[in-house]
Every structure is written in C-alpha cells, then in structure tokens.
UniProtKB/TrEMBL annotation:
InterPro entries: Aminotransferase_I/II_large, Class-I_PLP-dep_aminotransf, PyrdxlP-dep_Trfase, PyrdxlP-dep_Trfase_major. One of its GO terms (molecular function) is pyridoxal phosphate binding. One of its GO terms (biological process) is alpha-amino acid metabolic process. GO terms for cellular component: cytosol. This is Valine--pyruvate transaminase. Its cofactor is pyridoxal 5'-phosphate. Gene3D superfamilies: Type I PLP-dependent aspartate aminotransferase-like (Major domain). Residues 60-411 form the Aminotransferase class I/classII large domain. Keywords: Aminotransferase, Pyridoxal phosphate, Pyruvate, Transferase.
C-alpha cells in the first residue's frame, strides 16, 4: 500500500453511518433466504409521480435544441444558467427576496458543499489557529462527521430535552446556556428539518443562533435538504430564514434526484465566491444533465407542487403509521420516547436508561430480522461522553406500512425483555 498523508489517512476512513451501512449490506447479503425488514434505508422511496416528472423533463431536454450544449460542453463552475435563473426567480417570488446570480452556486450534491465549507472556513488559519465548525444541536446529520480534513475542528453541543413522559414523546432544543460562537468559530451548521431526528428548529431558535454568529462575522449554513419549497418534507409550519450571514443550502436528493447530485447554496456573494473557487479546483462543475432537468422542474412549478402534494404526504403518513404502531405495541412502563415528527424521512427513538448499548440493541433486532440504525454515529463532533448517545436508534420511513408494524412488534419484544428486572 502506498504511504498516506495526514489528509489521505483522514479521508480514507469510513465515518459515521457509512461504517454501519457496510455491516448492514453484509448482513443483507449473508442472510440470503432470511427476509429482513430494512428500516435503515437512507435512500428515498421512488414515488411514481416524482419519477414521471423526471422522465418528462428528460424527454423535453432530449427533444430540445439545447441538448448538445447541456451534455457535450463544459459550463460555468457556478452552475447551469437556466437552473440558476429558475431558482432565483422562484425564491425571490416565494420569499420576497432580492437574490441575484452572485448569490447562488450549484454543487454536485449538497454533501460537497459542506465539504467545501468545512475546509474553507473550518480548520487551521495561516497563523495556526483552529477555526471550529460549530454544530449547535447534537444529534445531527452523520455526514458532517467526515467533511473536515481536521476532525478536531468539529464541535457539537449537547441539547436540552423537552420530554412529555405520558405521551412517550420528546424534542431536542439548543442549549443556549452552553452554546458558544466566538472569534474562534469558522462557521455554524445544522440541518432543518433534521436528519436523524425530524426536529425543526423554531424561527426563534434559528434567529438566536444567527444573532450569536453575526457580531463575529461567522457564516451560518442551514442544511435545508428536507426543507420547503423542495422537497418540502416539513410536517410542521416552517419558513426558510434568510439573513446576511446565513447560507441556505438546498438539495434535490429528497425531491427524487439523488442520483444526479444537485446541491444549491444561496447566500452572501463573498461566501459563494469562495465556495465556487473550491469547487472549480475540485471538480469544475456539477453534472449539467441533472441541472438541465432540474431547471425545467423548478421553472414550471411542478417540483414545488409535487413536493407538497406527493412527497410530503407520503412521509408524513408513514410517520403516523409508525407512531400508531409504537402506541399499540410498545410496553407502557418502559421509558421509550419518540422524537416529535416535524419533518424529514426518519423517526428517532430514545430509550432512557437502556440496559445495553444502541449497538447491542441493533444486533438483537437483527436476530429478529429487523434492521435499524444505531444512534451513536449521529453525534459527530460531540466531545463529551454522554450516555444518551448510546440510547437511541434511527428508523427510516421508507418501508411498507405492514413491515413497519411488524418491525415495531419485534422491537417491543426485544425492549420488554431488556428492561425486565433480572
Ligand atoms: N444533509 C442532510 C441532512 C442529509 O440527510 C443528506 C443526505 O441524506 C445530505 C445533506 C446530503 O445530501 P446530498 O449530497 O445528496 O445533497
């Protein structure tokens, strides 16, 4: 094997949930014949109406004179002009903004956007000072765990818990008594709605975070992979918030286009320029085929419409099915708590005082043919030891209703046995 640099070593590890996915794929492969209920999927469901939209946009592109320009040529690093135009028109109209083409960058998926930001604004400055990437509310997206060339730059904050014991329900809140944004902060990052928890930070919480960042000129990146207007996977009222120091980051992956890798950053020109240079050095630009079909779906209004009428109701209904199954099957005397389902495509369960680790619970569920994701990889950057990180699991809202119900019956059996006094 060739010798690796510090970066090479850092980037050649699988971090977070990717490491678990490897185990899950091996389990599914080895278990030929055994049927598993897979509640671990991160891939969105292919919804027929949404697939049809992308087929129609593709047919339109194929039939147009534009086709050669789109796929047979390099383009601008900033993105394909008709997509930039479509997004700007839509956002300016929808939210009363004055964004210009200087405020936007198209990237190959939003994951790459966080990688650019993590290494442009986080890590060591020329004079050797560490600029932290602050995650104000842990748990959050596991993919943030691998974005920095300097993992020590990631700094996540433990939340406070709002618990409704009788309803077996809870919600994480940022702990403003602990959260620090200072001159040592490179940038702030959180997902809203949140993967894995389904949490939606309130407008007030978002403004408080931005208020803390503003005096230090610290950018706040809002990962809007599940937010309105596309894919609009919010089940509670929420409006995107735009402020000077804020970068609004979209993804079309949950709007049916994960394979085409489209991320979109909207923000201050000075920040966009830096991200764009990073992107030019790395990969020149995102695939133009995906951008050209996205331009059509956004300009026609079809994507926003399907997001509200097809994508959102699909997952919102799955969440209701899951919540109902939990209520019917889970033991009432066990301290299990479902995070409030305010959005995204996952549910998050916490077992207070769980007698085993989340990994052990994951293994025991596998014995019953049920695959979930243990919760501990969703606390990237949390530096203190906190038992709660080993008491949670993530359940994907992508399985069939009957499978969800059956899986929860198995979960109830495992958990009942675990909490039984010996
Ligand atoms: N952010 C969040 C919160 C996600 O859940 C995901 C994917 O699951 C991403 C970002 C990355 O998405 P993509 O790179 O496909 O845009």
């Amino acid at each position: 094997n060739p010798a690796l640099t510090q970066f090479g070593d850092q980037m050649s590890h699988l971090t977070g949930v990717r490491a678990i996915m490897k185990d899950i794929i091996e389990t599914l492969r080895a278990g030929q014949g055994q049927s598993f209920i897979n509640l671990s999927a991160g891939n969105p469901v292919i919804l027929p109406e949404v697939e049809q939209l992308w087929r129609d946009c593709t047919a339109d592109l194929l039939a147009s004179a534009e086709y050669g320009e789109v796929v047979c040529r390099y383009g601008s690093s900033q993105g394909y002009e008709p997509l930039i135009e479509a997004v700007l028109v839509d956002f300016n109209q929808r939210y009363g903004l004055n964004l210009t083409e200087r405020n936007i960058l198209i990237t190959p998926g939003s994951q790459s956007l966080y990688f650019f930001a993590a290494n442009a604004f986080g890590g060591y400055t020329a004079d050797g000072q560490l600029r932290e990437i602050v995650l104000p509310l842990s748990p959050d997206y596991t993919g943030y765990g691998g974005v920095s060339l300097y993992p020590e730059a990631l700094r996540a904050y433990k939340p406070t818990l709002d618990i409704d014991v009788a309803a077996h329900s809870f919600k994480y809140r940022p702990d403003f008594s602990q959260l620090e944004i200072t001159d040592r902060t490179g940038f702030v990052l959180f997902s809203r709605p949140c993967n894995p928890t389904g949490n939606v930070l309130t407008n007030d919480e978002v403004h408080r975070i931005a208020d803390l960042a503003a005096p230090h000129n610290v950018p706040v990146f809002v990962d809007s992979a599940y937010a309105p207007p596309y894919p609009a996977l919010n089940f509670t009222e929420m409006t995107p918030i735009f402020r000077d120091n804020m970068v609004h980051c979209l993804s079309l992956s949950k709007a049916g286009l994960p394979g085409e890798r489209i991320g979109i950053a909207l923000g201050d020109e000075s920040i966009i320029q830096i991200l764009q240079s990073f992107q030019t050095n790395l990969c020149i630009h995102s695939s133009r085929y995906g951008q050209a079909i996205a331009a059509r779906a956004i300009a026609s209004g079809a994507l926003a419409h399907l997001s509200e009428t097809v994508i959102r109701p699909y997952y919102q209904n799955k969440f209701a099915v899951l919540a109902d199954s939990l209520d019917r099957h889970m033991p009432g005397d066990v301290p299990w708590y479902l995070h409030r389902g305010e959005g995204a495509i996952f549910a998050w369960l916490w077992f207070d005082q769980l007698p085993v680790t989340d990994r052990e619970l994951y293994q025991q569920l596998k014995q019953y043919g049920v695959i979930v994701v243990p919760g501990d990889p969703f606390f990237p950057g949390l530096q203190e030891d906190w038992s709660h990180t080993r008491q949670c699991i993530r359940i994907s809202l992508t399985a069939a209703d009957g499978e969800i119900d059956q899986a929860i019956q198995h979960l109830a059996s495992v958990v009942t046995a675990l909490y039984q006094p010996s």
